[in-house]
Design a protein that fits this description.
By secondary structure, the chain is of the alpha/beta class. Helices cover 52% and strands 12% of the residues. It has a 7-stranded mixed sheet with strand order 3-2-1-4-5-6-7, sandwiched between helices. α15 packs across α16.
């Protein structure tokens, strides 16, 4: 019988056998499941990304890890794998803010993040955004679609061209279908599972930025907020903002209380500031705007960028908040004033024109046949 077992193991192959060991760490019962070390989590996700697990093993791992719930050391190991195998940006001389939002997009409320990013970029910050295409579970509108509607087809850039744009202009969008093929290869499995695996949490807290930056990540449930904070501590992330934003993202609401926390990791101690804010206290109270069509969103977005329309209060509220927390302004009121001035002066609109021109130039340089 021992020989039969050994024969079957040889037929499975070393990759399948090793992944079966890792799967047992998260898929066993309450008494025997040990979880993964940081190094093992790195190895497990690396094997998943590189196709060194069968579809059955990969699906079993994703759902078992969801049911068991990931620990900070496991998410840190998964982030290590993403940092090693995923795209990375060149350092920027500007202070950098990186936003982590659900990759499956938005389908209920009109997004503000692309517009907020443009205001922050106009104010001198480097901004990193990340997202997917039409993917489970929401299949919502993506960051790439929103920027494309504004005349910034960032997802069409190669990663090399994106790095050049980021180094020069301080804006980058990591569009997973275009820029992270290994991670995109798992979308089919995620569709069949139909539930968000821990990869969805990883997408919120990981960044392709390599220089020190303020990480801003959305959350829905309080345990996720603490999980991300504990993971950042292991990863050496010095500053991070967790935001209970609309649809799990980072857009602060204008119709109700805004809840966030600023996490600081010092050399000797760590602390966080709990932030409870109301847009109405700053004369910016407004109902959230429904997302109907991409065309309708684009019209409202252009109006907001020109200082009016239903998205304008939310854009000022969010931009002012992030200008404050990124250290551009000393307080929220000063951030709000600067955001309003940037929009009213037309500087944000001119910034979009510059970004579009430079993105086109980098794209043509990267694809000389297109220029010819």
């Amino acid at each position: 019988m021992a020989a039969r077992r050994q024969q079957r193991q040889q037929q499975l192959g070393s990759d399948a056998l090793r992944f079966r060991e890792l799967l047992a760490r998260v898929g066993s019962g309450e008494r025997t499941s040990t979880g993964l070390s940081r190094a093992e989590a790195d190895e497990a996700l690396s094997r998943l990304l590189q196709g060194q697990a069968s579809p059955a093993q990969a699906g079993a791992f994703l759902i078992a890890h969801r049911l068991r719930r990931p620990r900070p050391c496991e998410l840190a190991g998964m982030a290590d794998a993403y940092r090693r195998l995923g795209p990375t940006l060149p350092p920027s001389p500007r202070p950098t803010v990186s936003f982590g939002v659900p990759f499956d997009g938005r389908n209920r409320t009109a997004p503000l993040l692309p517009l907020t990013a443009l205001v922050l970029n106009t104010a001198g910050l480097a901004v990193v955004l990340q997202g997917g295409g039409a993917m489970p579970v929401k299949y919502g509108v993506s960051q790439a679609e929103l920027f494309d509607a504004l005349g910034l087809p960032l997802a069409q850039l190669s990663w090399q061209a994106m790095g050049q744009l980021f180094a020069e202009q301080g804006l980058a969008l990591m569009h997973q279908p275009r820029h992270f093929a290994l991670a995109e290869g798992l979308i089919g499995l995620r569709e069949q599972i139909g539930k968000r695996p821990p990869l969805a949490t990883l997408e919120l807290l990981w960044s392709c930025a390599t220089n020190p930056h303020l990480q801003v990540s959305g959350f829905v449930h309080a345990p996720t907020e603490q999980l991300m904070a504990d993971t950042w501590a292991l990863l050496g992330q010095k500053q991070a903002l967790t935001v209970k934003g609309l649809e799990g993202g980072v857009d602060l609401p204008t119709s109700r209380v805004s809840i966030a926390a600023h996490w600081h990791a010092g050399e000797e101690d760590a602390f966080h500031e709990r932030l409870i804010l109301q847009a109405r206290d700053h004369d910016l109270r407004a109902d959230e705007v429904e997302l109907t069509t991409l065309e309708g969103w684009c019209a409202m977005a252009r109006a907001a960028l020109n200082g009016h329309g239903p998205l304008h209060p939310g854009l000022i509220w969010n931009s002012g908040f992030y200008l404050w927390r990124a250290g551009v302004q000393p307080d929220l009121d000063a951030g709000i004033r600067q955001a309003a001035e940037l929009l009213q002066s037309g500087r944000v609109a001119r910034c979009i024109e510059t970004l579009a021109s430079r993105a086109a130039a980098f794209s043509q340089a990267d694809n000389p046949a297109v220029q010819a």
